Amino acid sequence: MSVWDELRGQAPVVEQLRRAAAGDGLTHAWLFTGPPGSGRSTAAKAFAAALNCEVDDVMARGCGQCPGCQAVLAETHPDVEFVRTEKVTITIDEAREMVAKAGDRPQTGRYRVIVVEDADRMAERTTNVLLKAIEEPTPRTVWMLCAPSPADVLVTIRSRCRPVGLRLPPVRDVAALLVERDGADAPLALEAARAAQSHIGIARRLANDPTARQRRTDTVRAPLALTTVSQAVALAEQLVKIATEEANASNDERDAAERVRLLETLGVAEGDKLPPSLRAQVRQLEEDQKRRAKRSVTDSLDRTLTDLLSFYRDVLMVQLDGGLEPVNAELAEDIRAFAEKSTPEATLARMDAINTTRQRITTTNVAPLLAVEAMAVALI
């Protein structure tokens, strides 16, 4: 497989990046934008691999097989730095570290590449730290910033980057990728791709994890039994519980493994008393894990609300006779019955309430349960 194979349904983007990797239109800074699941970071990683691909044929760069491509894909290439945060924002110190690394000359590859996967999670003061490095980069250094939309990045940065706009791939392309690469059952892959609304990462999780599929089913069926305030409060508790359980399921094992690795590095056996001189390092790890847990719950809750939003999207399509394929085909009869008891205006108001809550929980310090309770009451 080449590095471009995961970019299903993105032929114009692949062609643009292929040509740039071959030297036609290559510039020092790129801004990858697109909705969640469109493959922003995947495209940036593929481009980074192609820039440091070791094949002689420039138009074949991005082979996915040479040591250069393999090292970038595994995120072990000494000249390619991936920057992502598991906190709420990227800090100024982290930005300064990026700038310092961007100033180094390539060690083994053709280009020093800095891939910032969460460029939208930088405050204005933090982004300004990058400005001069992006405006006047070191020779053979390439910056790649990823964000949901150009508006999520300061105009001073945006104006210095070449835009790469991605879209969500077609559902059937995502399903085909799950079958070819992950060996998923074809009908299940199609169902997962449709439920994930073409988000490849979520589709893979739904195809491989029956528990995740059940959680999603519970979420999208919730509006069918929502008629009173007490039921709305119960729904809010259920949604936050679903998000928390999903986040904890992925964090607990990782947290334990990190603690074991740290103790091994410090020369302390599990269960032994920590010397006072080492306690600060363990406390720092625990604080980082708490911040990551908070971010994980927020991201998981946002995905849960996106699933809930898909129910009302299908309702609106029925009410407007939109003719689009439903996301939740298995609930077609229930959705039609629900649509007949409401109006398009009411459905749009409910969708606005969900989107407002998503914005509040991802951009403010509001208590998730309180925000979701207010939203659930608005859905009655």
Strand content: 5-15%
State the helicity in percent bands: 55-70%
- Work out the number of β strands: 5
Compute the CA-based radius of gyration. 23 Å
Mean pLDDT reading:
88
Task: Report on the biggest sheet.
Answer: 5 strands, parallel
* Lateral arrangement of strands in the main beta sheet: 2-3-4-1-5
| Envelope shape | globular
Low confidence ranges: none
N-to-C span: 49 Å
| H/E element order | HEHHEHEHEHEHHHHHHHHH
Question: So how many helices?
Answer: 15
Structural class: alpha/beta
How would you describe the overall organization of this protein?
The protein is an alpha/beta fold and 380 residues long. 59% of the residues lie in helices and 7% in strands. The protein is built from 15 helices and five strands. It has helices at 11-21, 40-51, 67-73, 92-102, 124-135, 155-158, 171-182, 186-195, 200-208, 210-221, 229-266, 276-320, 332-340, 344-363, 368-378; strands spanning 29-33, 80-83, 112-116, 141-147, 162-165. It has a five-stranded parallel β-sheet with strand order 2-3-4-1-5, sandwiched between helices. The longest helix has 45 residues, at 276-320. The N and C termini lie far apart (49 Å).
Features:
alpha/beta; single chain
Summarize it.
The protein has helices at 11-21, 40-51, 67-73, 92-102, 124-135, 155-158, 171-182, 186-195, 200-208, 210-221, 229-266, 276-320, 332-340, 344-363, 368-378; strands at 29-33, 80-83, 112-116, 141-147, 162-165. By secondary structure, it is of the alpha/beta class.
